[in-house]
Specification:
This is N-(5'-phosphoribosyl)anthranilate isomerase. Its EC number is 5.3.1.24. InterPro entries: Aldolase_TIM, PRAI_dom, RibuloseP-bd_barrel, TrpF_fam. Belongs to the TrpF family. The protein is α/β, with parallel strands linked by helices and about 220 residues long. The chain has a single domain, classed as Aldolase class I (TIM Barrel, Alpha-Beta Barrel), CATH 3.20.20.70. Helix content is about 30%, strand content about 20%. The chain has 7 helices and 10 strands. Strands 7-6-5-4-3-2-1-8 form an 8-stranded parallel sheet. It has a two-stranded antiparallel ribbon with strand order 9-10. Helix 3 links the parallel strand 3 and strand 4. Helix 1 runs parallel beside helix 7. It is globular and about 45 Å long. The two termini are about 15 Å apart. About 40% of the residues are buried. Bound molecules: the ligand O=C(O)c1ccccc1N[C@@H]1O[C@H](COP(=O)(O)O)[C@@H](O)[C@H]1O. Ligand LGQLAAA5 binds next to strand 2 and strand 8.
Length: about 220
């Protein structure tokens, strides 16, 4: 099975078209005001109108309350919710029940004891996104272009389908897949020409390298 690719933080048509054309399976739209990739739900919906069936539109939220989820979903037809904050397992389950959508929970790794969270969230989420833990003073809980030590995942059984994220680029993604055997990968800043602006050529190169057969 080819590695599934998610391109996250799409904000404009050129990046979106490059991701779709190159075979991305998931497209991420950020609904977190502090992010340079933030979109209003109406703008995201306009962009998402170009997304063909079979490519999942993922809404990225950070500790959203119910009102924020309802307001976004009123305008933007999402296929999946990504939770990238400090949501507890109970909150993940509640959001899944409220929205009726599959939920992907981001889990940050920096050291072996962080691995326990993969089990806790694996019991309630439909998918996991395994990212680097953000630095303590970071503005953003993700999208920082930071990688973690991929060897932490060596030989690990993960309860649910998962994507590897954090500091991935066209230059390192093949090695990341080879070391972790990740079934999927997710990237934001590593395929940008400026914060919030995807570089179509880097998007295409990332997808080609991520999905190339492992040698
Ligand atoms: O992309 C963002 O702006 C963002 C904001 C808040 C939470 C998560 C965010 N992005 C997610 O983080 C991963 C890793 O990003 P990067 O590739 O290291 O830049 C990204 O794949 C998004 O899912």
């Amino acid at each position: 099975m080819a590695v599934a690719v998610k391109i996250c933080g799409l904000t404009e048509p050129a990046g979106l078209a490059a991701a779709i054309g190159a075979g991305a399976r998931y497209l991420g739209f950020v609904f977190f005001a502090k992010s340079p990739r933030h979109l209003a739900p109406q703008a995201a919906a306009q962009l998402a109108a170009q997304v063909p069936l079979g490519v999942a539109k993922v809404g990225l939220f950070v500790d959203p309350d119910d009102a924020a989820l309802d307001a976004t979903l009123a305008h933007m037809p999402l296929d999946m919710i990504q939770l990238h904050g400090n949501e507890t397992p109970a909150r993940v389950a509640a959001i899944k029940a409220r929205t009726g959508l599959p939920v992907m929970k981001a889990v940050g790794l920096a050291e072996p004891r962080d691995l326990d969270a993969l089990w806790d969230y694996g019991l309630v989420a439909d998918m996991l996104l395994i990212d680097a833990k953000p630095p303590k003073d970071a503005e953003l809980p993700g999208g920082n272009g930071l990688a973690f030590d991929w060897r932490l995942l060596a030989g690990r059984q993960i309860l649910k389908p998962w994507l590897l994220a954090g500091g991935l680029t066209p230059e390192n993604v093949a090695q990341a897949v080879r070391l972790t055997r990740a079934p999927g990968v997710d990237v934001s800043s590593g395929v940008e020409s400026a914060p919030g602006v995807k570089d179509p050529e880097r998007v295409r190169r990332f997808i080609a390298r991520a999905t190339a057969p492992i040698l």
